[in-house]
Amino acid sequence: MPRLPKLAIIVSSTRAARFADKPTAWFSGLASQRTDAEFEVVDLRDFPMPFFDEVASNLYAPAQNEVAQRWQKKLTEFDGYIFITAEYNHAPTGVLKNAMDYAYPEWNKKPAAFVGYGSVGAARAIEQLRMIAVELQMAPTRTSVNIQGADFFAVWQQGKDLSELTHLLPSVNTLLDEVVWWANALNAAREA
């Protein structure tokens, strides 16, 4: 029997006042109910890398920064990645882009999926992240989860719980189905 894929749920905001903890807890709780993959939350707060200042991508030269080395080592544990992302000024967070730049071979030939939140559910940030993922030789999933508009503001400002937003569950389930399928397919291809 093939091993279960191990997927990282990456928290991509590090601000003290971040909203990211709510969708991360909600999504990881739903993901953990599955029996076809293992999930682990990876918080960028635990990897405080400076702005990218290496001589080159670690595709060409080993990283010198110790935190970056630890980040790269952590990424190698996973068969795919689910990014919990905000949208700042129509783009992903700077800390996430920086973290993505600090690795290269670790991302290659693995799936990427996205859970976004904000006024438009981080849709514009997710589109940019999909382009970045392709450049890092990742396979982005078609489906994303977008916590947007009234839903986002109801949770952020009015105390509503994300578990009440049951209309998001079909997107969650489809995203998880896709990322697990891609993780299995790409694992098999990498091992062949």
The fraction of residues assigned to DSSP E strands is 15-25%
| Beta-strand segment tally | 6
Query: Can you give the mean pLDDT?
Result: 96
**Low-confidence residue ranges:** none
Helix content: 25-40%
What would you note in describing this structure?
It is a single chain. With 192 residues, this protein is an alpha/beta fold. The chain has 6 helices and 6 strands.
Write a concise keyword list for the protein shown above:
single chain; 192 residues; alpha/beta; six-stranded parallel sheet; 6 helices; 6 strands; globular
In brief:
This protein has 192 residues and is an alpha/beta fold. It has 6 helices and 6 strands; from the N terminus they run βαβαβαβαββαα.
Write the layout of secondary structure elements.
Elements (H helix, E strand, L loop, with lengths): L5 E6 L9 H11 L6 E6 L22 H10 L4 E6 L8 H8 L9 E8 L4 H13 L3 E2 L4 E4 H10 L10 H23 L1
